[in-house]
Amino acid sequence: MIEPHIVRVIGPHVDGKVFPDEAPGDTRPPYAIYQQIGGPVITTVEGGPSGRQKGRFQVNVWASTRAAASTLSRAIQASMQSDPVVFAEPLGALAADFDRAIKLYGATQDFSISWDD
Fold first, then answer.
1. Backbone angles phi, psi at 39, to 5 degrees
2. What's the distance, CA 76 to chain centroid?
3. CATH domain 3-116 topology
4. pLDDT at residue 111 above 80?
């Protein structure tokens, strides 16, 4: 499973507040959410399972200011790219967001990650 490694890499940037899919309602910023949003199925030449996985993961960072969200997102990108286990490939630059309901600034970025089962 790659998820524990994603949490390990992102965690130090947000004081360990990394959640799959959704953060609890009382979570104070900054925090990060990640989820797998697809990816190709890797098979052998014979058409069977390869033992290798590749997924597209989205990382959302939430903070109290635009500058904080953007800075955290860029730091997470650098860590995800340089970690020898995660070794994520960014699939584009960060996308800024603002959630009026919770009054937080967000930054979203997608990554391609490959790993062995």
1. 135, 160
2. 8
3. STM4215-like (3.30.2000)
4. yes
Distance CA 76, CA 30 (A): 13
pLDDT at residue 70 in the model: 97
User: Contact at 8 Å (CB) between 34 and 18?
Assistant: yes
Mean pLDDT of 39-63: 76
Cα dihedral sign, 102-4-42-81: positive
CB burial readout 57-68, b (16+ within 10 A) else e:
bbbbbbbeeeeb
CA 1 centroid distance within chain? 14
The pTM is what? 0.88
